[in-house]
Amino acid sequence: MAREVEELRKDCASYTEKLERIKSATNQVTPEEKEKVCSEQKLYCKEWRRRKRMATELLDAILEGYPKSKKQFFEEVGIETDEDHNVTLP
Questions:
Q1: Going residue by residue through the chain (90 aa), what tens digit of pLDDT does each one get?
Q2: Handedness of CA 7, 8, 12, 15 (dihedral sign)
Q3: Half-sphere exposure of 77 (CA within 13 A, CB side)
Q4: Could you give the 3-state DSSP secondary structure of residue 40?
Q5: pLDDT at position 44
Q6: Could you tell me the CA-to-CA distances from 71 to 30, 35, 83 in Å, in that order?
Q7: Cβ(89)–Cβ(48) under 8 Å?
Q8: Burial environment of residue 48 by CB neighbours within 10 A (0 to 12, 13 to 18, 19 or more)
Q9: Contacts of 68 (CB under 8 A, 6+ apart)
Q10: How many CA atoms lie within 13 A of 50 on its CB side?
Q11: CA torsion angle for 72, 77, 83, 89 (degrees, to 10)?
């Protein structure tokens, strides 16, 4: 028990030291930087949606005259979709 208590005290001391380093860190994110990053993410998500829609429309137009299924076409051409990799738009 005494050994376990001593190990827990060492862990507590290391966590306290880590917490102090985090609190004293000077590289905090300012609200302006946070807003800038959030607006950039919204822009990139909007662009992602737009490009995905354009690609889907183009592929659907190609598939209208294609004799095989959509899945077979994607395999032949080598197209990987977001759904293949379980990626969702935020």
A1: 889 999 999 999 999 988 888 887 767 778 888 899 999 999 999 999 999 999 999 999 999 988 888 889 888 889 888 888 888 877
A2: positive
A3: 14
A4: helix
A5: 95
A6: 47, 41, 12
A7: yes
A8: middle
A9: 76
A10: 6
A11: -150
HSE toward the beta carbon, residue 44, CA cutoff 13 A: 7
Q: Which two tokens stand for residue 13?
A: 């001391």
- If you compute the radius of gyration of the chain from its CA atoms, what whole number of angstroms results? 26
Q: Which two tokens stand for residue 42?
A: 């919204």
Q: For 23-47, b where at least 16 C-beta lie within 10 A, e where not — what string?
A: eeeeeeeeeeeeeeeeeeeeeeeee
